[in-house]
Design a protein that fits this description.
heterodimer; A: mainly beta; globular; B: 7-stranded mixed β-sheet; 4-stranded antiparallel β-sheet; 11 strands
Chain lengths: ~110, ~110
């Protein structure tokens, strides 16, 4: 049958503002998480990761928060720039499954100059 | 350090044919994973290879297979192509197979007509 495209949440922010992208993961056994950025025509680009024994991790202009109680991840981007416009995915890896990652549907971020 | 490379970048095949895609991981990485990305299903895990052994396999039919060579380069093969196999096939490499950062290549865009 005809395939229907995934409903992609969208987020539009003004340049210079902070962005928050949310992700609900499904498996309480997941113990490693990665945020990826994917620009049109390119493969996903690693942004930041976090393990289940942490609640927060910071990188350059990005912060990932992990709430295991409600199975929720968020990616915060400070001082969002036009180059940040892309689709952002969270990926979860259940414990002891090696590099088998399950990806969310993604969020499309548009930065308005 | 060079990133993950995939060849070819674009491929057009007809139904019933078979195809082989190639992936060269980042130098020193021994784990290679393959993913299929489509608008309808998003990013889905195909399989992972580590030290020439398949460690994990996703929920795909047996027409999808892969292998890894002693230099960690990997190939995936799809036999008896179907229209629904049209997708972006992504390869990702990682140093190890439990909780290591995973980096993606640019992908191979396969179109089946």
């Amino acid at each position: 049958g005809e395939s229907v495209g995934l409903h992609l949440p969208t987020l539009s922010v003004q340049e210079g503002d902070n962005s928050i992208i949310n992700c609900a993961y499904s498996n309480s056994a997941s113990d490693y998480f990665i945020w990826y950025k994917q620009e049109s025509g390119k493969g996903p680009q690693f942004i930041i990761d976090i393990r289940s024994n942490m609640d927060k991790r910071q990188g350059q202009r990005v912060t990932v928060l992990l709430n295991k109680t409600v199975k929720h991840l968020s990616l915060q981007i400070a001082a969002t720039q036009p180059g940040d416009s892309a689709v952002y995915f969270c990926a979860e890896s259940p414990a002891r499954t090696g590099n088998q990652f399950y990806f969310g549907t993604g969020t499309s971020l548009t930065v308005i100059p | 350090k060079a990133g993950v490379t995939q060849t070819p970048r674009y491929l057009i095949k007809t139904r019933g044919q078979q195809v082989t895609l190639s992936c060269s991981p980042i130098s020193g990485h021994r784990s290679v994973s393959w993913y299929q990305q489509t608008p309808g299903q998003g990013l889905q895990f195909l399989f992972e290879y580590f030290s020439e052994t398949q460690r994990n396999k996703g929920n795909f039919p047996g027409r999808f297979s892969g292998r890894q060579f002693s230099n960690s380069r990997s190939e995936m093969n799809v036999s008896t192509l179907e229209l629904g196999d049209s997708a972006l096939y992504l390869c990702a490499s990682s140093y190890g197979t439990l909780g290591y950062e995973q980096y993606f290549g640019p992908g191979t865009r396969l179109t089946v007509t």
